[in-house]
Specification:
The chain has 150 residues and is an alpha+beta fold. 36% of the residues lie in helices and 35% in strands. The protein has helices at residues 2-6, 8-24, 33-44, 50-54, 67-81; strands at residues 84-96, 99-110, 113-126, 129-142.
Length: 150
Amino acid sequence: MRFVSRFPCLGFMCVFFLVALVSCSTVKQKPSPAVQTVRAFNSTYGTPAMDRTADIVTPEFRDGLPKSVWVMKTWNGMQKAEYKRVKGSVLESEIKDDRAVVVMNSTIETSAGQTQQNEIFTLIRRDGRWLIDGLAVTDEEISSKGPSGK
């Protein structure tokens, strides 16, 4: 105690340093289950893993089609367009009760060129699982380059 009383600023500096250290440390939070669902969509939609995409979308999103029919129909259309999701990053998300909205910025390639766009996913929670119920595309910027910059 004599040390602290001789140097009163030292105690204050120690507390200040500890608070600053704790507040500056970055703790990476686990994304919400709704965001995880959108990321799963981003990594499987338009790929040979489309059957996994069908598991995370509602029947309404699939226009009432059975999963296998929706996968085959969607996959065939994407193959004709040479569709490929290049990247996607979540910009923001909001969850309220059993509904969520997740906004993702995505880059997509097709035979027509590369597109940068924002995608607004609406999700609902059914039986404890988040499912994509709707998708709206905004702010499309289409380049004239073909797939892979050709």
